[in-house]
Amino acid sequence: MPHSYRRRLLTAAVVAIAFGVGVDSFARTIDFNLGWRFKRGDHPEAKQLAFDDYSWEEVNTPHDWAIAGPFDANEKSGYAGKLPWRGVAWYRKWIAVDRREEGSQVYLDFDGVMASPKVYVNGQLAGEWDYGYTPFRIDITPYVKFGRANVVAVRVDTTGHGTRWYPGAGIYRKAFLTVSPPVHLVKNGTAIVTSDVSAEKATVTIDNEIENHLESDEPIDLEVTIYAPDWQEVAKRRLSEVAKAGATIEVSTTLELPQPQLWDLDSPTLYQAKTSLLVAGKEVERRDVRFGVRTIELTPNDGLLLNGQRVALKGVNLHHDLGPLGGAFNRRAAERQLEFMQEMGANAIRTAHNPPAAELLDLCDERGVLVWDELFDKWNETADKRPDEPFEPYYARHAAALVRRDRNHPSVFVWSIGNEIVEAPHDPHGLTKERVAFAREAIRAHDATRPVGLGCHIPHSTETGVLDALDFTGWNYQARYERARNRYPDKPIIYSETASALSTRGAYRLPIAGAKCDFPDAPVVNAYEFSSAAWADIPEVEFERLRRDDYLLGEFIWTGFDYLGEPTPFEHDARSSYFGVVDLVGLPKDRYYLYRSLWRPHTPTVHIAPHWNWNGHEGQNVPVIVYTNGDSAELFLNGKSLGVRRKGERPSTPKDLAAGATLEVGGAKLTEAATSSSTSLVSASASESSTWSMVQIGAASHVRSIALDFPRESKLYGYRIEAANDDGDWREVASHVATHEPAWGGVNEAIHHVDVQASKLRVVFGACLDNVEPKVSSIRVYADKYESPYYLPTYDYRLRWNEVAYEPGELRAVAYQEGEPIGEAVVRTAGAPAKLVLTADRSTLTADGQDLAFVTLEAVDERGTPCPLADALVEVEVTGVGKLAAAAGGDPTSMRSFQDSKVALFNGKAVAIIRADQGLGGEVTVEATAAGLPSQSITLQTRRQSP
User: Which among 536, 582, 647, 656 is positioned nearest to 856, based on CA atoms?
Assistant: First the structure.
């Protein structure tokens, strides 16, 4: 017998002793997450009991096998984070069930496995599952050898999984082993509904399903007790029933709750319902389920009513990955995300676009956060559905898994059947009236108390009747909900995805681009926060829509955090997104303070952008923005006032010097024409031309801005702009190379800021793409700086000083509300980095092997001023009772492994994530060193987990 096999048997025996002591047919659930053996690759023999896994890696679950990398920089789509998530892998774990348990039912419960898991026990296939995001249970009773060692082997296969973002890979959520008596409560078979809620009382109906695996009818008693938050008993009832042989019965209990404390956003009160199952007078199982008492109503005109009061949804979309930790769920990491979002003012999340981990809903219950609970993205391969599989049984199976698990969470206020699903026949797996009606009923079969809707994106869907069966509709981007308002005036509408704004934290670039999807600094998106995806808008444009269309229940911005994958607009060069208001490691972008200033109007917010380190720009213009909840602010540079700005004061549009001028056109297509300029416009896939368009503006004038309007997206045109005076001496003042980036859409207007004297200007075309005709619709010329009218709403929500001559020193902003100061912020020019500063989000951790501390690493100068451009490579060493779980700087283009002990500061900062060891507790020391800087350290405490 191999040594490793003997060792496994010994381990199993130890588990059996601990597992079997005092066992007397009482149901219990055991954590099944420690001590798995893992190996990538397909190893069919690993399901066998005698297989030698001694050389395999030992891991704990939740576990994401792909997050360690390496990144594949040559993978050009970027949609899934450039990480090696596709493949097959195996997990093995030994268990022993005490001989005295024979006759019990034994189950394995998984909250999520990515993807297509097959679960073997002692070499036999015990069960499998077909969607990576829903929970499932495997009955392993027929395969377990009682009183002996058993092996559980799980084969995970992600090769068939479809995704539009990084999905993770492996047993990435928690697993549990449950041993139940033959008559027991059904997993997720408890449903709690509150009704007739008033200040005096509330009616609580608790339905419990009981399963009888015996061949005889069994008399049972069910005792249900409700406890208040302080664990005082407030209601109790006992019922007697007969559990039919080989069947499942449902027992309904109704209780009256006196003077209920309501679950609300500010006071998320939770009650506990304890159900005791007695067979032949003996208690065999006890289940505690938390619930909240609240009323929620979605209305078509008066918004969302929570406990009778209107609540505007200030929501964020969140993908399931946890940044550098990957897909492996961690309660503390998820809690930290919620902390950031609530501090910003968010009161809701959308689980885009899949069921979340169960623990995330626990956190939302506890913190008072509403949840849009979503089942699928599309109804195709992203749902793990095979093309040949019938829709109805697949949907019903996973709807049941989602709803039965989540229906008792007071935070969940709506169910979503999917996101951006195209109608059939355009997508054979897409929407039809029959499928939508079936999907709604599949959910309502398990919970009829919550509305059922869909995240829509095609306005035409309102005209086909395909949305008729839904209780509400969600709409993604650009006021596409307007048709739904006309077609379904009695259906509530939620703005389910808004903004899709883009930025790279701390990466400010000059000049500021003139259009929302101009990205001249690839692969950086300017941190000045004027950019968005082509299909979407900057936040202020969405604010205006929400203010105008007050029938909307609120918004869910895309997204709360940057996430792995979908790195629009730089799919080729980056591995994580630019969408978040917080970056991948949990460092807020400037946009965070824009939302905070609006969503928390009574909490002081004063934030200045950009940094004030602009060496080489002395005397040049560096625009400054102040984000504040105040109505005005005054800006000072080195003590000198730069004036007061007030929200709502929009600048006037400067005069067009070319207004009324005739647009002259000349030139002809020449294959060599594009090479005559000092700036080559040649593209192998482009048509080449020397066509030009010209306007004369009269007497020579000072020109600061030129705006071009094209028939198609401006990105497709290659050209140079030339200026001349009456002497006819043409000189190039601006240029553009034709490109397909960003890949999705674009705007027709192009704005170029110049500084030139001219009496005439012309656009000379070079290589253009997609067979566009080389011409402009108009040329507009301005003596003052011109800004697209698209950006006018920004003056209502942020305060802008567009002309600030840079000089090193101190920027100070003082914010006011109705003339009274409410706060101030200061930004200073930093010198050379002199040391590192380490700041932990928590000083004490639980020694459970899962708890985390997030330590921010920041470079400062000798005066302690943050160095916003520092990029030092920092070595992180962790000693004591903890380990380095991950480290990163938030750079979407970095290909350094998150588990490397070296991390580069990105725009002055990085974050190291420290995981506490499991055990008795003690000290954890985190030391950071970088070339040329003294090492710095911070010490954390860990404490033993409470029983």
Answer: 582
Class of domain 614-651+794-819 as given by CATH: mainly beta
Separation of alpha carbons 46 and 23, rounded Å: 31
Fill in the DSSP letter of residue 25. S
Q: How far apart are CA 20 and CA 11, in angstroms?
A: 14
Q: How many whole angstroms separate alpha carbon 421 and alpha carbon 93?
A: 39
Q: Which residues of 161-180 are buried (b: 16+ CB within 10 A; e: fewer)?
A: bebbbbbbbbbbbbbbbbbb
Residue whose entry in the numeric block shows the structure tokens 């993807």: 115
Determine contact, residues 491/471, Cβ cutoff 8 Å: yes
Separation between Cα atoms, residue 810 and residue 906, nearest integer Å: 23
Half-sphere exposure of 182 (CA within 13 A, CB side): 16
Rounded CA-CA distance 877/807 in Å is 39
Question: One fold for both 299-602 and 614-651+794-819?
Answer: no
Segments making up each domain of the chain, as ranges: 3-172, 184-291, 299-602, 614-651+794-819, 664-786, 835-943
- Residue 77's pLDDT is what? 84
The total of other beta-carbon atoms located within 10 Å of residue 564's CB is 30
With CA atoms as reference, report the closest residue to 140 among 190, 114, 115, 177: 177
Amino acid in position 766: G
What fold is seen in the domain 835-943? Immunoglobulin-like (2.60.40)
Neighbours of 150 (CB within 10 A): 20
pLDDT single digits (tens) 503-546: 999 999 999 988 999 898 889 999 999 999 999 999 999 999 99
Residue type (1 letter), 643? G
- Per DSSP, 588 falls in state B
Task: Annotate 472-510 with DSSP letters as a single string.
Answer: -EEEESTTTTHHHHHH-TTS-EEEEEEE-EE--TT---S
Strands (DSSP E) along 321-389, which ranges? Answer: 348-351, 370-374
Helix, strand or coil, per DSSP, at residue 706: strand
What are the pLDDT digits (tens) for 36-53? 999 999 999 999 999 999
Q: Structure tokens of 655?
A: 């005069």
- Distance CA(245)–CA(243), nearest Å, equals 6
Half-sphere exposure of 29 (CA within 13 A, CB side): 16
555: closest CA among 346, 718, 382, 410?
346
CATH level 3 topology of 299-602: TIM Barrel (3.20.20)
Structure tokens at 431: 């929407």
- Name the token pair of 719: 């050209």
DSSP tag of 720: E
CA distance 768 to 561: 37
The residue with tokens 């999917």 is 418
- Tens digit of each residue's pLDDT (9 = 90 or more) over 424-465: 888 888 999 999 999 999 999 999 999 999 999 999 999 999
CATH class of domain segment(s) 3-172: mainly beta
Architecture of domain 664-786: Sandwich (2.60)
CATH C-level class of 184-291: mainly beta
Q: Kindly report whether the peptide bond that precedes residue 425 is cis, defined as omega within 30 degrees of 0.
A: yes
